[in-house]
Amino acid sequence: MRLQEWTIEEQEQLIHFLMTNTWPYHGDSNPARHLIEKTIEDGGYQSDEVKTFWVKNEKQEKVGIVKLYDLHDEIPMFDLRVADLYRGSGYGPDALKLVVDYVFGLSQKKIRLEGHTRQDNLAMRKTFERAGFVKEAQLRKAWFSPKEDAYYDAVTYGITREDYLDGVITPVIWEEEIKKETQVKIPNFPDQFESERLLIRIPKIEDALDVWTAIRNSQEALSEWMPWAKEVPQLEETEETLREAVADFITRRDLRLHLFLKDTGEFIGSSGLHNIQWSIPKFEIGYWLSSEMEGKGYMTEAVRVISDFAFQTLHARRVEIRCDEKNSKSRMVAERAGYELEGILKQDAITMDGKNLRNTCIYAKIR
Ligand SMILES: CC(C)(COP(=O)(O)OP(=O)(O)OC[C@H]1O[C@@H](n2cnc3c(N)ncnc32)[C@H](O)[C@@H]1OP(=O)(O)O)[C@@H](O)C(=O)NCCC(=O)NCCS
Question: Global pTM?
């Protein structure tokens, strides 16, 4: 296959080619003779910036035509058309490869070659792909078809000089680049710390039996406020949630913390920094205590030191505690730990029995 430059002497052949084939995806699907003649006269097929080539097959038949335009630009454009008779035989992709060779072989350096097509022109889209182009954009409803009075998506494909010379196809990098720019630096921090009486640390899968025992023994009290405590879990379920908690801690998505008595090593409850937004940074402290450990000020002690950890080590600007308006024990923890009640969200949740609406208190500390 080869490209052979079209000359003005072949005007009639070009007009015949354009008028006797169908162009369902072109703006003008049945171009009239006088319009083609006018375009030729105006240099629309041959000028300083435009060149038109016949696509010829091995038998020297003219199977198609390709027009290159904006040739003065560093980024030229093209229009490829294969005759009806020859469509579906692989000529499109081969012709486009020849166009790419031609453009990047020009003495003036071309940066890239690009083309646009209608979303449903699947033959053309495949043709782009076969010739090493990469899909770079899909503009929704950007392609108006006057004939159908309908809007289609427009799809843009491009090939860069570098890819062409290196013989590679580099995909477009989408979100990753943005993520890199906006990626928040998360400071290094220890996975355990202490208060006067407590060891506060990252969960471990080995904690499962202690956690499960505490939930089972405290289920009645917990189930009033904690949706996950409505039913006593199976030990395996507790293990599974711990696996997730450990993974989340390591990836910094969520920082669950287990609380132990320093003296005895006994597990007493769980807390942590949840609903994290590292970009601010802000956190929400949650907590529950094994029933037999209530009334000793352990949770207030834990919340104080976890808050300090959030503000000093994690550079928090805001830490929240949310609890049911009627959960007075939880509210006392927030208040004793120096949290300010910012407001009460009315009817923003449903009671555990599913029968009533309930209110949520928002406590917060900021820095
Ligand atoms: C678009 C055009 C240049 C493609 O050339 P072609 O020689 O017909 O292309 P091919 O037959 O080699 O088809 C190319 C690929 O598209 C696939 N294809 C063709 N028609 C398809 C369809 N309707 N649905 C899905 N895939 C289709 C082919 O199977 C082939 O894929 P493959 O490489 O996996 O086998 C040609 O069809 C044409 O001139 N169409 C009218 C003009 C036009 O639309 N030009 C583009 C304007 S932006």
Answer: 0.58
